[in-house]
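Ticket opened by: R.M.
Priority: normal
Category: complex prediction / small molecule

The reporter submitted a protein together with magnesium ion and asked that the result be attached to this ticket for the collaborator who will pick it up next week. Submitted input follows.
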Amino acid sequence: MTSEEFPNLYEDDLLLVKALDEIGIDSRPAVWSDPAIDWLSFDALVIRTPWDYFVRLLEFRAWLDARIASGVRMCNSSDILDWNYDKRYLQELARAGVSVIPTIVVPQGERADVAVLARTRGWNDVVIKPTIAGGGYGTQRFRLEEADRHRGDIDRILLDRGLLIQPFLPEIQSAGELSLLFFDGVFSHAVCKRPKVGDYRVQFQYGGTTETAEVRDEWIEGARACVAAAPSLPVYARVDGVIRGNDFVLMELEVFEPLMFLAQHPDAPGRFARAIQRRLREAR
Ligand SMILES: Nc1ncnc2c1ncn2[C@@H]1O[C@H](COP(=O)(O)OP(=O)(O)O)[C@@H](O)[C@H]1O
Ligand SMILES: [Mg+2]
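Result attached by the on-call engineer:
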């Protein structure tokens, strides 16, 4: 499943389509906002590039709720999608003992004095971001003395979604952000994403770059603990984090619509395809 901007999918998923084809599974791109599509005509919907969902918020949520209600099989499964859609899950994971970047969540509809909240935690340099977002959407970094300048943006975010406040982690600029990729809970490959000089956002939209990364077993274990904390076993998972000391600290568990960096490992597209195949077989 994709969006109007990517009617022929993104490069990552072209590799997946080929790998599915090689094991005899037909697939085709379907744009979520296309009213002509009969979603129940598919054996499964693999949620890949609905990257406008956080802009068309209510419309997309209605689409997702309708699919969940219809009982159509989704990859990842609907319990995971419903849970992972809003980054409030970070707080839940932290409570469950997962190592997460310290995070304050301000619920939608409330007013937030970011400077007051952050000061009580001893944070001076903060990052704020909407709880429903992707690709760095709405993410801002500032020092508390500049907080007043961001008040308008913060109020706007809180109109229709929640707000996350975190300390700025300098490791993003020194070491980069790691993405560890899992299929059916099994580690596949890892990449390191770095921001361009002068930025802190690692996404390609902001000039960030990605390279294959070697990761230590302890980091894989740290990331695996994040995957295991999802409501059920995800077909695909991307665990984004930074290394602090020698520990993997979670930035984001992406089990909704992650780029999987399939081109970075020759076996990755086949692993993804077979994980989907296993779910289709279970469905019979
Ligand atoms: N606490 C933080 N410290 C440093 N950089 C951050 C922090 N939070 C987010 N960023 C930067 O902003 C990017 C986007 O944030 P993220 O939580 O991954 O949201 P999304 O990718 O869903 O938009 C991250 O990839 C990272 O580069
Ligand atoms: Mg991210």
